[in-house]
Amino acid sequence: MNLLALQQKLLHGSVAGLARIALAIPVYLVLTPLVLHALGPEQFGIWSFSTIIITLMNFTDFGLKNSLIYQVARHAERPDEARQCFSATIGIYFAISALLLIGTALWGQAVIPALLNVPDRFLEEAIFVLWVTIVGFAVRLLALPYQAVVEGYQELFRSQLIFLAWLVVHFLGTLLALALSPTVFGLGWAGLIGNVFIFAAFFWTVRSRFPHITPQLHGLFSGRLRSMVGFGLGIQIASICIAIREPLYKVLIARSSDLASVATFEITYKLCTQLMSVIATPLLGLFGAAALLAGRHEDLAGLLRPLVGWTFGALLPGALGVALFAQPLMQRWLGQDDMPVGTLLPVMCAAFAIYYATEAFYKTIEGSGRSWYSATIQVVVLIVQVGSFWFFSSAHAQAAAWSLMMGYAVFSLSNLIMFRSRFPDIHLLTRWQWIQLISPSCIYVAGVSIFPHVVHPFIFVGYLLVHLGFLVASGIVDVDVLWKRLMATRTGARWAVVVGARWTK
User: Can you list the positions of beta strands (E) in 327-424?
Assistant: First the structure.
């Protein structure tokens, strides 16, 4: 696949991903109070058990989805190799799904209600939620190999459109369940239908677009499986470190402070992750693309250049805007004396900005086959963060934010060193472009404090315009190329209106 086509596919995927995020936020804001009102607090609490189960079972992925993306991208021109990797992955997932169902049948009915302290009058509902969640998870798990094939062949746009369509199915299904059967039983069946939709959509996409990818028993337990598990294990360790970071911080904060501080951290952390998810959306397909281009450094540089420009170009004004406006906005949202989110948010957002500044390098290193680097650096970051939290916790009200920043600084510094070591011949931006990228932000930070607060919003708008002007003038953002590709994306976006019909093409 040539570089231009790959860039176009990533842009299509980014647009679809942004559309999915833009739809997901209002969908969940609308559905949450409706479900809470329909079920009541106790049954809503039972319904929320499903998220705990899913979080625990997410560790059963073993990193094989990303490993399959890597293998499919590397063997895109060798269908037999790609098919063998797919068969090994789906075989493992089928075995995991069977074990989950057997374990639930043997022990779930006794263990889960006791573990979660479910009252006897809600025992039937709790058992149903357990079963429908595990069955839905098994279906979703079996869809992962098909999703990995789609993304390994650089079809991120189709993957994002499937999840966009699922949001619509989920929303309409939940509304229908609330209208016909406003209980956990109705919601459970609606959720299961949504998971079946995801499996069917990815299955049909692979069958129609990549008919050579089919399960086969021959060579299932070959050396290919061992190499996939070896690569996937590094990804899995990194994923576990990322997944446990938030709950681990909540435990540490609860033990060293109080529940109000845990609530503050929860709100602030969620706000930062939502903001960064928008900025990181264009990087979603970079892992698979890097696996495809790992040996073509010139093309890899051409792919990374606009992504790195986008990342820094978005992170700088984003972090500065949060630093300037977080406190008054949070006071309006949560109340003047409700929670100190406004004072914690600027530091934590700056920490997340440091992390995501090198996310493109991190995904490229992973995609080049260095999964154990991913595991190592995430373990080191977690150790640094826990250690620095205990160092700060007794003397600093913002210990969580500053410890996050220290760990993320280690992460980004390590990524820069590793990327330079792995790809010494790749130079993304010139020295003059870096100066033009950073100088408006430096001037803004140095001068904004001399003006009264009432004019700060106007100054920020002026800074933002100057910043964008420098991005265009320096060539970091090529407006002409971006406009042409966005116009091409409009053609692909029309495809979303008739998603089902076009999957067969």
Answer: none
